[in-house]
Amino acid sequence: MHMLITGAAGFIGSHLAKRALALGNQVTVVDNLSTGYRAQVPEGAEFVYADLGNPHHYVRLRGIKPDVIFHIGAQSSGWISMDSPLRDMDDNARATVALCEWALSVGCPRVLFASTMRCAASRWRHSTGRSSSSSLRSLSSFVESRAAEASEM
Q: How far apart are the two ends of the chain, measured CA to CA in Å?
């Protein structure tokens, strides 16, 4: 199986890539190295430097046709999200929508989106009996951009 993993120069993504390779999968890693390190990308994975919020960078993915995408990459710094909420939106929500559009264009049938709840809210409100992104008490614009990603999917 061909797996594309975003954010695999970071802690979680690099471990996922290592495990996927150990199981015999073909792995392509996409990362902009804004917080991750090239040295963390495991040997055997194809590395593509790209900023998925930049539509011009998708040409770097030409010829790649994954069976599944694990979208782990994100701008997760609370400080950056407070100082530059538009950058947060580009790095998170816009990049996720663009990645999903690219996945459709290459016939990728599955995209797994992952995010942390630690950043998301201090508690969920269940006044309607069900959860939604509108019930989050956000701690930063990072939370809002990741919640927007989830609602777009």
A: 23
- The answer to whether 20 and 5 have CB atoms below 8 angstroms apart is yes
The Cα-based distances of 152 to 77, 95, 101 in angstroms read 22, 11, 11
**Range name among 5-14, 44-53, 114-123 with the lowest pLDDT average:** 114-123
Cα dist. 1→53, 88, 94, 113 in Å? 26, 32, 27, 18
131-146: pLDDT as tens digits: 444 444 444 555 555 5
Rounded distance, CA 62 to CA 59, Å? 5
Per-residue confidence band for 151, with pLDDT thresholds at 50, 70 and 90: low
